[in-house]
Every structure is written in structure tokens, then in C-alpha cells.
Amino acid sequence: MLVPNFNTLADAIDRLIVTVNKLAYFENEKRKESLKLDCNPELIANWDRFSRNECEYRNLLKMAINEILSEVVKTGKYETLSDNRTFEAPPKSVEDLLDEMCYINPDEIRNQLADSFKATLAPKYEGWFEYTYKVGK
């Protein structure tokens, strides 16, 4: 059974990407420290330990991905899971919004934006909006 954020293919690939990035970071830090003239062997050992841990985790993730893909090949199907914890359908589609915008008067939008800017920024830039509005007309 697949559980979101635990053992799905997408989650394993996502964790693999993060792990490979961390592995590269630790390896680079280890390399940079070892190139210094006054390198710290203790620090190099720490970077090496971190790197080895990420390498082991990478191998575990690769095996998990192989298991998931082997199951897909054997059964010929992959069960997708809906995960609606963070995403909801928007109240309007992009198409609906663009359709509505086609009928809005551009001057009306400009005035609404000017009023919005005036309400939020006027205390900070006192006098600027009046001058800009007069010049723009």
C-alpha cells in the first residue's frame, strides 16, 4: 500500500534529489577543507561522516525506487494517490479570469490600482500621488 509522503515514487525521487544535493555539498566542503594548507583533520572527518551517511541514504532511496518501479513493471500499473492537504481547486479557472478581464475597462483598472496605492503608500510618500495623478492626466 502506498502512503503519501512516505513510500510513493514522487516522494522517493524528491528525497533522492535532496540527498544527492546534500552529498555534493558535504563532498565539496570536505574537498575545500583538505586543500587548505592548515586543514583541520577533525573537520574533514566530520564532512566525510556526513557524506557517507548521505551516500548510504542515497543507496536506500535508489533501492526503494527500484522496488516501486519493479512493482510497476510486474503489475503493469501504478496507483496514484490524491493528496489534497495543501492544494485546493481555485474558485475560478485561469480561463474564467481572463474572460472576465477582457470586459474590464483599462481606465477603471488604472484608477483602482492608483486608489489602492494611494491608500497603502500615501502616508509614506505624502504628496507624491497627487503630483503623479495630476501629471498623468
Write up this protein.
By secondary structure, this protein is mainly alpha-helical. It folds into two domains: 9-75; 94-136, no CATH class. 70% of the residues lie in helices and 0% in strands. It has helices at residues 9-35, 41-75, 94-102, 106-121, 128-136. The longest helix has 35 residues, at 41-75. It is flat and about 70 Å long. The mean pLDDT is 77.
Short description:
The chain is mainly alpha-helical and 137 residues long. It has helices at 9-35, 41-75, 94-102, 106-121, 128-136.
Relevant terms:
137 residues, mainly alpha
Order of helices and strands: HHHHH
Question: How large a portion of the residues is in β-strands, by DSSP E?
Answer: under 5%
Identify low-pLDDT runs.
none
Mean pLDDT: 77
Helix amount, in percent? over 70%
Find the structural class using helix and strand composition.
Answer: mainly alpha
Largest sheet: none
Tally of individual helices: 5
The span between the termini is 65 Å
Shape: flat
Number of domains: 2
Based on DSSP secondary structure assignment, what is the total number of beta strands?
A: 0
Give the radius of gyration. Answer: 28 Å
Q: How are the elements arranged and paired?
A:
Blueprint: H1 9-35, H2 41-75, H3 94-102, H4 106-121, H5 128-136
Helix pairs in contact: 1-2
